[in-house]
Each structure stands twice: as C-alpha cells, then as structure tokens.
Design a protein that fits this description.
The chain has 165 residues and is mainly β. It has one domain: Jelly Rolls, CATH 2.60.120. The protein contains 3 helices and 13 strands, in the order H-E-E-E-E-E-E-E-E-E-E-E-E-E-H-H. Strands 1-2-5-12-7-10 form a 6-stranded antiparallel β-sheet, with helices on one face.
C-alpha cells in the first residue's frame, strides 16, 4: 500500500466503502427537512453531509448514483478520472486534481458515476459534500447486467467499473 494512503487511512480512521475505496463521515448537519418521495411517503434528510474519501492503487469507485448532488473536493495525491453517465445516457469523463487544476467538481443527482486514479502507484484523498444530506437509502450501487441493459453503448466502461453480479 502507498505509505501516504496508509498514513491518511490511519490518521483519519477511514473504513472500507461499499463502492470501493475508504471513507469516514466528518459532518452531518443537525437541521433536517422533509423531501417528497415518489412512493408518496415523506423522507427526512439532513441539509448536508460530508466525508473524506480515499482511493489507493488499483482501487475504483464503482458505478453508483445518488438522489442528491455530490460535490467532490480534491485534497492530496494524484489526479482522478471521473466517469459519468447522465440521465440521458451520455458518457463523459472529467480529470480532477492538482495536475489538471480542477479542485472541485459537482456530480448531478441521478447520474451514474465511477472513478479511478490516473497514477496507479499513488492515492487520492478527496472530500465529498452531499446536499440534501447523504443517506444509504438514496445510494444505488450499479449492477453490471442492469447497467449494460440500460446503456449497451457503454458496455466496455460499465464492465470496467462494476463488480460481477
């Protein structure tokens, strides 16, 4: 493991994240509000949440989506490649980090997205801010066959950034 990654994992007490990489929640607003749900029930959410998130070596953030916008903030390490499939099925990529001078990037709600390190011998430490606040109920980890059925034109990239079902 990269020694800088190990340092941050220990110092920040990061744990494995279901989408890949490591994380720790560092902020959850004390204020709440009610948001509508398509199932006609009401959901209570915090105004905002934030986490530290770290990828190391060959780690990937596998395709997932949230029902809130997520802002990524670059802190340290190598650049990241963020892959996004928007709600219309359009694929885009963003290079994010100090080498490309993009230190903050917003992923819109309901878009599928994944990420990997540009330099596999390094690591990246970022922060993620979600508003309305993150709740695992609003997190969907992409399933390979379902995503390929939805977006067959992106099969190659979907295979790279999903786990075998």
């Amino acid at each position: 493991m990269n020694p800088n990654a190990q340092f941050y994992i220990e110092k920040l007490d990061l744990k494995k994240h279901p989408e890949g990489g490591y994380y720790k929640e560092v902020y959850r607003s004390s204020e709440h509000f009610i948001i509508p749900d398509y199932s006609l029930r009401k959901k209570e959410r915090n105004y905002s949440t934030s986490i530290y998130f770290l990828l190391e070596g060959n780690d990937k953030s596998f395709f997932h989506k949230l029902s809130s916008d997520e802002i990524w903030h670059f802190y340290d390490g190598t650049d990241l490649r963020i892959i996004i499939i928007d709600t219309l099925g359009n694929l885009s990529e963003v290079l994010f980090g100090k080498g490309c001078k993009v230190f903050q990037f917003t992923i819109r709600k309901d878009c599928w997205f994944a990420a990997e390190l540009v330099d596999k011998n390094s690591f990246a430490l970022i922060g993620c801010t979600v508003s309305p606040g993150f709740d695992f109920e609003d997190f969907v980890l992409g399933k390979r066959e379902e995503l390929i059925n939805l977006f067959p034109q992106h099969e190659r990239i979907i295979q790279k950034f999903t786990r075998v079902d």
